[in-house]
Amino acid sequence: MDKAPGPDRITNELMRGTITELSPLLRKIFNEILHTGNIPSQWAESHIILLHKKGPKDDIGNYRPISLISNVYKVFAKIILDRISIKLDENQPVEQAGFRKDFSTIDHIHTIKQIIEKYNEYRKTIYIAFIDYAKAFDSLRHEVVWQSLKEQGIQNTYIKIIKSIYSDSTGRIRLESIGDAFSIKRGVRQGDPLSPKLFTAVLEQMFRKLNWEHLGLNINGSRLNHLRFADDLVLLEEDPKLLESMIQNLAEKSRELGLEMNSSKTKVMTNSIPVDITIKGQRLEYVEEYVYLGQIISPNDQMSKEIEKRIATGWKTYWALKEITKSKEIGIKIKKKTFDTCILPCITYGCETWALTKHHRDKLARCQRSMERSMLGLKLKDRVRSTDIRHKTKLTDILARIDQLKWRWTGHMLRCKKEKWSKQVTIWYPRDGIRSRGRKKRRWEDDLKMTLGPLWTRVAADRHQWKELEEAFAVRHTELRDLL
């Protein structure tokens, strides 16, 4: 799909192959556009094709519309993006982790999991709402985009150019033939490098109008009442009625932007007694688990489910690449590279936030051993020792990789100059809660404490020392695995 050209029929391959000849011409065109504010008409046009997802091909619901725009325009848009990104990022708070340097999905996953872990340990009540918008990127009113850019200090020259693209924006359906053009009056453009930043800029303007300073959770004197990753919003409160008020307030402000909250897909979660929360007369559903940014979030311990999910994803990728992984003609070096670059990341996604027990580790290790046997064409009845198999495959050990990713991300997170919520909740403990008695559940920080002691967070400030201790963490963790 990356190779499909837009209305001008210019492919990325053509541009890469003629970059020396094209560069002076494109520079001249781009400078002229920046000077006049006038854009080529083809840049404002999108060709929409239908991509089959799954299911019967005669059901239109099984297709996803894909918008194709000019590749030359994308180059120009990236230049504009480079010039406005710094200013837009300066306007974004730490609550927004989407499409930002030094932020990732792991930050917000860790934040929510740490909050739930500590609220449960200190027997405190929490209510969480996962907000879903109906076609968020396709629904924004264009006027609020220009206003948001202006209020966040973007130069009028760039606003004028972006506005020109959207004011003349048209679409055509491309099937066996190309249909008639129709105007597009809402939403940000699919495939446009500018779209993510435009969307988050508008969201920020909306949140500035919400009077939520006194709402949410008290994290060392700061208020955490929501998290954003692009249009994935999470609201947090200890009082369900205050959470209901927040959701209703958010729905009202969202409608002013053209966004409509999807009540049937917006879910609520609690570690206490469910209390009815309604929006537009519809009661929101309470769930025991929710997949947030690719990870299972639950008020109870659902780590086992997440491990099963990650293993299943790994096997799905393994079999999708069976022409390589199962081939008798392809050498083990290629299979190792395929495992390390394609399969292992599927299994370890989000491992930086995991609190693994011995049972979880054994399950992950068994998964890898099974894949290694499959690559070599071995069966259990062949009775080949695991150490001999590893000697042949030389695959990256999955448990060592998980420990490495967690250690490195933790150090980076704690040293980050931005006061991200992932950092704040890591060093925070509820002051007004009462810790539950008896044996404690496995906590995220336990393996770090085993290596460095209770003051482990202070060590992370020294990058050099933290890097030197990485091997000690892996070795000590290996020695303690049988005791977990």
From TrEMBL:
SUPFAM superfamilies hit by this protein: DNA/RNA polymerases (SSF56672)
UniProt xrefs under Gene3D superfamilies: 3.30.70.270
Residue span, Reverse transcriptase domain: 32-297
PROSITE patterns from the UniProt entry: RT_POL
GO terms (BP aspect): DNA biosynthetic process
Signal sequence, start to end: none
Top-level taxon in the UniProt lineage: Eukaryota
Database matches in InterPro entries: DNA/RNA_pol_sf (IPR043502), Rev_trsase/Diguanyl_cyclase (IPR043128), RT_dom (IPR000477)
Pfam families to which the protein is assigned, alphabetical: RVT_1
Name under which the protein is recorded: Reverse transcriptase domain-containing protein
